[in-house]
Structures are given as C-alpha cells and as structure tokens.
Specification:
This protein is of the alpha+beta class. It is 48% helix and 19% strand. Helix 3 packs across helix 4.
Amino acid sequence: MGDSRIGVALSDPTGAIVSPLDAITRASLDDDLAAIAGLAQEHNASAIVVGLPLSLSGGLGPQGRAVRDFIRALSESSAVPVHSQDERFSTVEAERLLREAGHAPSRNKGLRDSAAACVILQSYLDARNNRR
C-alpha cells in the first residue's frame, strides 16, 4: 500500500494461481476501505492480505506503522478476515518479473504495484501451505 496507489491481486479458489487486478488510486481512508471491501465482495474473497513494509531488521518504521493502522481499520470494517504479510523486496521482485515479461515497470506504476501485490499474496499463500 503506497501513498498514491494500492496494488491489488487475487488468487483462484484453490490458491494456486495469483493474478493482478487494477490498482486502486488512493483517495480518503473511507474510500480506500470501501474500494477494498467492494473488491473482496465482488470476487467472493475469503480473506484480504495486506503487505506490511518491515525494515530490513524486521521492525516497523513510519510507513509500517501507517500500514498497521490501515490494517486495523480494514479489519474493523471488513466482512472477511484481514492478514498481513511481510512485503520486503516485493517491488524489486515484481519489477524483475515485469521486465522478464517485456513490460517497463517504471512506465506503469499501477501495474508494478499490482504485480508487487501478486508477489505478496503468493508469499502469503506459500507460507500458509507450508504450515499445513
């Protein structure tokens, strides 16, 4: 979740395939929460995963604290559970994947943000499946 956009990704019901959706352009907190809730409802999501920007040492900096507060607000307003996932290096990985696919990530920041959301969601699903 950035200051301008929120990257969005969706997995299939089995959790095997992760796909990007159009990024949400940030507005107000209420509008952002409503947009996410609307997407969750539209796609029958069983959970929402939010990338949590941790520092390299694993701590929360100013952006991490802001996202933690956003997660709290989303949890309070969401009909489905909200989980956080470490998002360290997700944008770097997303840019690498986009370049390999022939896209210029610097030209379409919404695509980059949603590709990073795919990386975060896939990481969450992989970690969940490894716990089973």
